[in-house]
Amino acid sequence: MQVRRIVTGHDSQGQAIFISDGAAPRATDFADIPGHGMAQLWTTPDQPRLSEAPEDLTRLQGSLIPGVGGTSLLAVSFPPDSVMAAPLDPQRAFEQMAAALPGLFECFEADHPGMHKTPTIDYGVLLEGELWLELDNGEQRLVRAGDVVIQNGTRHAWRNKSEQPAKAIFFMLGASNS
Hints:
Blueprint: E1 4-10, E2 16-23, E3 26-29, E4 37-44, E5 71-78, H1 81-84, H2 90-100, E6 120-128, E7 130-135, E8 140-144, E9 148-152, E10 156-159, E11 166-174
Antiparallel strand pairs: 1-2, 3-4, 4-5, 5-11, 6-9, 6-11, 7-8, 7-10
């Protein structure tokens, strides 16, 4: 999933400058699930600080789930559920997703496809298409382009019941349970 990412910073005199402008370096299209992809656009550590040239932590390929106080910004493309349920090569799809989604992949439940819970507060913005947000009690809500979801560490799944792909941005803030 290619997403243009523009990063700003400061020069030695404190003036704003462009640090980079190009494709997000941490991006994956899942070959065995056509239309499914993700890009981590930015991440910050638990105690983010402003600096002249901010370090691009996405290049470290660490966990997509931020630590408490840290952030992670993801773009995700969701194909229709019919495509998600029938990967071209299920074993290879599993291996590619495990490698591309460290930290997040382990949050998904094997017995309940798509269902997961993360230790984060998420701000989700649907950019294109429509998705259904399913909670662990089975209740669902339709989310359309332009809608915003505030996810407070709850167990949930995203379902694309349409025949069109959906694209969303998720800003995750690492949170504690206490």
